[in-house]
Design a protein that fits this description.
It is built from four helices and eleven strands. The strands form two sheets. Strands 8-1-2-11-10-9 form a six-stranded mixed β-sheet, with no helix packed on it. The protein has a five-stranded mixed β-sheet with strand order 3-6-7-5-4. Strand 6 and strand 7 form a beta hairpin.
Length: 169
C-alpha cells in the first residue's frame, strides 16, 4: 500500500518534465532524462591530441567510441580529483552518444512548468547558451541545462575524427 502511494506521487503529470539532477562544484544541475542513455562510473579514457581542454578523451562503450566532456572544465570551474562519486553520464544527442563527467548524480525529479523560470540577463555571461532555465525545487534552485547545445555535434565530430586517426596509427 505504501509503495503504491509513492509510485503514484512519482507519476509524471502532463505539465511536468523529468530531469536527472547532478552536482558540479556544489551546485545542482539538471538535464532532461530522455537524453540520458546510462550512468557509468569514472573510468580511464584515451586522450585525443589537440582537443580542447574540456574534452577528456574517448572511451569504448560496447563497441561505440564515445567522446567524453568534463563539465567542470567546460564551465570554467577548477578541475578536481576524481572520487567514488564521480560519474560519466552518457547522453544521446541526435543519435550520437557523448559522455559528460560530473561530480555526483543526485536524483530524477519531476519539474512542473510553474516551477521553471527563465535565466536572468546580465553582462559578461559565459556558457549562457547552455542554460535552458532555472527551476525552484523544494528549497534549492536547480540550473536546467540544454545538453544539445552544450555537447555540440561539431565538437563530437571533431573528437570522433581525431579518435579514428589515432586508432589508425
Amino acid at each position: 500500500m505504501e509503495t503504491a502511494r509513492v509510485l503514484q506521487e512519482k507519476t509524471l503529470q502532463a505539465n511536468e518534465e523529468q530531469f536527472l539532477t547532478f552536482r558540479l562544484d556544489g551546485q545542482e544541475y539538471g538535464i532532461a532524462i530522455l537524453k540520458v542513455q546510462e550512468i557509468k562510473g569514472w573510468d580511464k579514457m584515451t586522450p585525443i591530441p589537440n582537443s580542447p581542454p574540456y574534452v577528456k578523451g574517448v572511451l569504448n562503450l560496447r563497441g561505440v567510441i564515445v567522446p567524453v566532456f568534463d563539465l567542470r572544465l567546460r564551465f570554467g570551474l577548477p578541475e578536481t580529483a576524481r572520487d567514488a562519486f564521480t560519474v560519466i553520464i552518457v547522453v544521446n544527442i541526435g543519435g550520437r552518444l557523448a559522455g559528460i563527467v560530473v561530480d555526483a548524480v543526485s536524483d530524477v525529479i519531476n519539474v512542473g512548468l510553474e516551477q521553471q523560470c527563465a535565466t536572468p540577463e546580465y553582462e559578461g555571461q559565459q556558457n549562457r547558451e547552455f542554460i535552458k532555465g532555472l527551476a525552484q525545487v523544494e528549497d534549492k534552485l536547480l540550473i536546467l541545462l540544454d545538453i544539445d547545445r552544450m555537447v555540440s555535434p561539431e565538437a563530437m565530430e571533431t573528437t570522433e575524427a581525431a579518435a579514428s586517426v589515432a586508432a589508425a596509427q
